[in-house]
Amino acid sequence: MTGTRTGRRGSTTAWADIDLHALGRNLERLRRGLPPGQAVLGVVKADAYGHGAGPVGRALQRFGVDGLAVADMGEGITLRRAGVTAPILVIDPPLSSQLRLPALHRLGATVTSLIEARALATAANRAGRTVDVHVRVNTGFAGFGAPQADLTDLLAAVASAPTLRLEGLYTHLSGAYGPYEDGGLAELERFGEAVDVARAAGLLPPLVHALSSPALGRPLLTAAAARIGCTAVRCGAALFGIRMVDGESPLPLAPVMSLKARVTRVTALEPGDVADYAAASAAPRRIPVAVLPFGFSDGHHLHRLAGGVLLIRGRPAPILARPFMSGLLADLTDIPGVQPGDEAVLIGRQGDHRITVEDIAARSGLRPSAVPLLGPRVVRRYRTGATGEEQPE
Ligand SMILES: *Cc1c(COP(=O)(O)O)cnc(C)c1O
177-201 in b/e burial notation, b at 16+ Cβ within 10 A? Predict the structure, then answer.
């Protein structure tokens, strides 16, 4: 079964294939790599890392994810409007102008201070609804979360408010994004102290979570998290098959997105012609080129990708000079016979070659999760069947 969501079939010249079957398998494999009983919250902020929040959120729900997480209220509302009924945690605490929204849209709210907790309780009371609350505690990352010293009072305030339900306690580990096997362990130990404080006060909520994607393939961290009482993980990148740290994970995760465009023109630079707006790009010889309708407004990583490659006719074609806003030139010197309409692959597999998000990140100096963030012109096509698209195992 193949599903497409483009209403402009014939006009599509650049598109992302989103393999929802691979997404489901990734979720399953992540689960298998975790100690038993851990809940998985799928992080789908930033439009599901460019994969499309609505379709991805609905698919994860179908695959049995325990909940979803987004950065802000607007993203949570978008998911509800897309028909997602699973629990949704909003990571940013509500601004005073947003206090009604968790009750109105059944969104789980993060609180990090007594002021936020009280204001949220008042708003929930007015709305006549109960709101799920996760308390975020700071363990040393960017000042996000409540100071450890405030934790007991904050948990007590949430637990005693009749319109708030204390659902979670969490933190986010920066060290896990570093190259070291035990990165994040010191932060996790600080979180363990917070968990002990909550337990001692009789205020330990059901969902206790700290680990995110890069930690999930590291037994040192997953075992330590289970030991201190974690009951859930939050993961975004790993669900999409994106590795945030080099050589990070023994988990066999498959990329979910491939990115394609059709050659719109085949032409040539004559000696002295420039390939972008810089004289330095003047062609030293005749260079046959393909024009691709994919520029830095379609994928901002392209802005940094001079010297990168894409695949045409199963062969790597170097990107010539710097891409334009809405297009790029690919060098066809080694690829004869290219025709307008031929399919080029910017991320994914063609013939014996494969271009990964991680390759592009390494070349462009971006974080891997930034690479699939695409511009509005790029259509997404959703494939749901096991045979929808050839996938590397
Ligand atoms: C973005 C985010 C995540 C997900 O991180 P991944 O590395 O994509 O798994 C988890 N927790 C918080 C608080 C986040 O902001």
Answer: beeeeebbbebbebbbebbebbeee
Burial of 129 (0-12, 13-18, 19+ CB in 10 A): middle
The Å distance, Cα 80 to ligand 1 centre, comes to: 20
Mean pLDDT by 10 residues, the chain (393 residues): 47 93 97 94 98 98 98 98 98 97 98 98 97 97 93 98 98 91 92 98 98 92 96 98 80 94 97 86 93 94 84 96 92 97 97 95 92 95 70 33
Select from 150, 140, 73, 142 the least CA-distant residue to 112: 150
From 177, 260, 277, 382, the catalytic residue: 277
Q: Contact 194/155 with Cβ under 8 angstroms?
A: no
Q: Please give the distance, rounded to the nearest whole angstrom, from the Cα atom of residue 91 to the centre of ligand 1.
A: 9
The token duo for 262 is 């059709």
260 a catalytic residue: no
Residue 242: half-sphere exposure toward Cβ, Cα within 13 Å: 28
314/222 Cα distance (integer angstroms): 40
Choose among 185, 163, 157, 181: nearest CA to 173: 185
What is the rounded CA–CA span in Å between residue 143 and residue 107?
23
CB 307 within 8 A of CB 328: no
**What's residue 6's pLDDT?**
45
